[in-house]
Inverse folding.
């Protein structure tokens, strides 16, 4: 499962479920789940606590396969803070570039690496439904009103700064919801900032009007097409990347980062066994079986050299480098088996052989 | 349908404090289509945990901020100081437009976004203060390359004018950029030292991603020399790539053919070296990068080539270069520095506030 979509309410999710042709699957902990291929959508409920818990439950379930989390849902446009903004954003889908937890004042920045084509907005997340006329909102951290009402310390400069700030704000509406910051915070325990995307359509302008389930679904229906396109675009992108990666892995005798090739992107592999994952087992070894896995291969070599832990780490670094640089270390090792130097008699002799392996690789 | 990535600087984060700074306005005016996002402090985006350099770099964001606290740092004894007693460096920007595989910034910073400090006037004021005490030799581009962003920032123009007006100040501008107009437009001064890092084509194409070719860089060197700048050439780091002797012999020859060597100020030669902490970070973040996974020796808190290899590479380069320039104009990575290192530890540089405190104590092995 590569793409996880999170929605607070079924009415928000339903149009997207239809667009992406997702099918209901077994839920867990009261979270309804819909799945197709590499896309999973979960309805996690409203409010920051349920949002954080639902995010964690689903990301834990998906595990390391998850490549991106998309939070999709409704929000209020806080007109009170931006009286000069466009007359109505209702029904417009935004991507959040900045999310502030209104309760804790903490601000989070998802990486904006994908060109979704959506207008962008700043998001505020609170733990209760709020209206822009609420007294509590006047002190909301970072609000335009708060900033402009801050006592000026340096006179005219602040007026100019406020003008510039207003210009920045003009292009970035402020939206209010009850989940984004919580999803980001919970998601950050599993994912990187570039792996989280927040899409919010505007359902009202925070003036207190009633948003009915029917209206919510209607508004979501108007935005689900754009959201579905983004999901499909990401899906296509991830599968292409995976395909390229598998092609690289299957090239016999090469590795992900073969010698000084700048065109090949670094892969996520960490261990020697992973970077050596293309071993094709054709070489003839005296004591290592042809069907040895790279892990077995390393283990046998460590054993035959009588390696201490330090020697093992050293050997691992030599082989990792050799593999990446396209140096045929297996021929080097084979030659020691052929001459009878491997398996070595003891650790002292093993150290000598290790030095000779090093020299052969680094010469 | 695939989703394309945002272009570099499609998003610009601006600290509230500098929203109205003239340099902020100047920079923002060049990116009318960029999304501008207001931030309280640059650290809140630059130092986020769990960032991915690889994912961020193609869509690198720009952060405009004000630098507070100390702005000039005394160079560590382990840094190559070119015999300058009052050796300082400063950080007008952090991170780089280039994506060099071996760059220590990738071990020091957690992400790829670029920070430009717009309050140059504060940097200049601190420099002026220092100049009242003694002359200053100042490296401007230790944690970035300022030349490729000069059209955007005009940082070099300000620093150069300031340098020309202050007799006690010398500045080094280290770069891999091939832009020639920059050198034609800056005031020529014998205390403004363009320092070009040159590498063989094999290294440029495989490790110095996004940088100009050797040929383009050599043209820029020539332009700077012809303009009258005291140019430094840096063969640093020299890498022990397969066939390194041929590659570097050819590099020196190509330099000599393109550049009037007798007019160079000096030449710097060094091999790869990196603090252990940064190396640990880089090995974790770039597991498939051969130059990072090379089995360097770790001694006294930093990684380097084997001693014999270092001497072999340095001696080889010196032998080649003394055909064109006197030995006294060739500076080697100080061998003494390695013994100095034995008395030091190299702390992590994970967040900007720590980095500030640690600057000046960290061995640099960047270019």
């Amino acid at each position: 499962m590569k793409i996880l979509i999170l929605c607070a309410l079924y009415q928000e999710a339903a149009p997207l479920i239809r667009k992406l042709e997702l099918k209901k699957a077994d839920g867990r902990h009261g979270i309804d789940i819909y799945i197709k291929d590499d896309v999973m959508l979960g309805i996690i409920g409203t409010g920051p606590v349920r949002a954080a818990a639902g995010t964690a439950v689903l990301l834990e379930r998906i595990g390391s396969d998850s490549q991106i989390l998309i939070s999709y849902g409704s929000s209020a446009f806080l007109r009170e803070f931006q009286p000069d903004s466009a007359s109505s954003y209702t029904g417009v889908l935004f991507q959040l570039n900045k999310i502030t937890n209104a309760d804790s004042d903490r601000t989070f920045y998802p990486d904006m690496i994908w060109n979704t084509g959506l207008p962008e907005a700043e998001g505020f997340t609170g733990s209760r439904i709020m209206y822009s006329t609420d007294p509590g909102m006047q002190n909301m951290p970072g609000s335009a009103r708060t900033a402009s009402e801050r006592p000026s310390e340096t006179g005219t400069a602040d007026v100019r700064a406020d003008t510039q700030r207003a210009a920045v704000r003009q292009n970035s509406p402020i939206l209010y919801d009850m989940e984004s910051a919580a999803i980001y915070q919970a998601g950050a325990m599993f994912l990187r900032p570039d792996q989280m995307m927040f899409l919010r359509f505007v359902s009202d302008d925070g003036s207190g009007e009633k948003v009915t389930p029917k209206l919510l679904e209607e508004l979501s229906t108007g935005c689900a097409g754009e959201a579905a396109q983004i999901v499909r675009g990401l899906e296509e992108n991830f599968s292409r990347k995976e395909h390229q990666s598998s092609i690289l892995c299957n090239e016999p005798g090469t590795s992900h980062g073969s010698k000084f090739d700048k065109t090949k992107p670094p892969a996520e592999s960490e261990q020697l066994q992973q970077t050596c994952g293309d071993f094709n087992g054709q070489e003839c070894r005296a004591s290592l079986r042809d069907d040895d896995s790279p892990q077995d291969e390393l283990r046998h070599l460590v054993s035959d050299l009588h390696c201490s832990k330090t020697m093992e780490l050293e050997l691992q670094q030599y082989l990792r480098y050799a593999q990446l640089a396209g140096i045929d270390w297996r021929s080097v090792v084979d030659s020691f088996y052929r001459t009878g130097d491997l398996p070595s008699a003891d650790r002292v002799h093993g150290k000598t052989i290790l030095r000779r392996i090093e020299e052969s690789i680094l010469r | 349908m695939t989703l394309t990535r945002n272009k570099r600087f499609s998003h610009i984060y601006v600290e509230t404090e500098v929203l109205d700074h003239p340099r902020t306005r100047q920079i923002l005016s060049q990116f009318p289509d960029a999304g501008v996002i207001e931030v309280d402090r640059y650290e809140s985006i630059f130092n986020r945990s769990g960032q991915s350099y690889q994912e961020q770099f193609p869509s690198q964001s720009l952060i405009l901020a004000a630098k507070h606290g100390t702005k000039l740092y005394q160079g560590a004894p382990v840094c190559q100081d070119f015999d300058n007693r009052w050796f300082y460096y400063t950080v007008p920007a952090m991170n780089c437009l280039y994506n060099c595989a071996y760059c220590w910034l990738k071990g020091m910073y957690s992400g790829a976004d670029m920070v430009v400090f717009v309050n140059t006037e504060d940097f200049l004021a601190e420099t002026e203060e220092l100049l009242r005490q003694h002359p200053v030799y100042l490296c401007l581009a230790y944690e970035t390359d300022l030349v490729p962003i000069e059209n955007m920032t005009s940082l070099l123009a300000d620093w150069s004018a300031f340098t020309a007006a202050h007799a006690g100040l010398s500045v080094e501008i280290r770069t891999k950029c091939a832009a020639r107009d920059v050198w034609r437009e800056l005031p020529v001064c014998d205390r403004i030292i363009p320092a070009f890092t040159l590498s063989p084509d094999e290294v440029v194409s495989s490790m110095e991603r996004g940088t100009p070719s050797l040929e383009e860089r050599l043209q820029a060197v020539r332009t700077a020399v012809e303009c009258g700048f005291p140019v430094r050439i840096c063969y640093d780091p020299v890498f022990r790539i397969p066939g390194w002797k041929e590659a570097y012999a050819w590099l020196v020859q190509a330099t000599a053919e393109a550049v009037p060597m007798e007019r160079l100020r000096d030449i710097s030669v060094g091999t790869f070296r990196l603090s252990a902490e940064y190396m640990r970070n880089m090995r974790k973040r770039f597991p498939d990068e051969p130059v990072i996974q090379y089995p360097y020796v770790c001694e006294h808190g930093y990684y380097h080539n084997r001693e014999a290899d270092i001497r072999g590479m340095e001696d080889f380069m010196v032998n080649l270069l003394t055909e064109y320039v006197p030995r006294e104009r060739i500076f080697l990575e100080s061998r003494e520095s390695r013994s100095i290192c034995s008395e030091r530890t190299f702390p992590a540089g994970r967040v900007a506030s720590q980095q500030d405190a640690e600057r000046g104590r960290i061995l640099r092995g960047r270019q």
Notes: Chain B touches chain A through 51 residues (CB under 8 Å). Chain B has a mean pLDDT of 90. The CA atoms of residues 300 and 342 of chain B lie 5 Å apart.
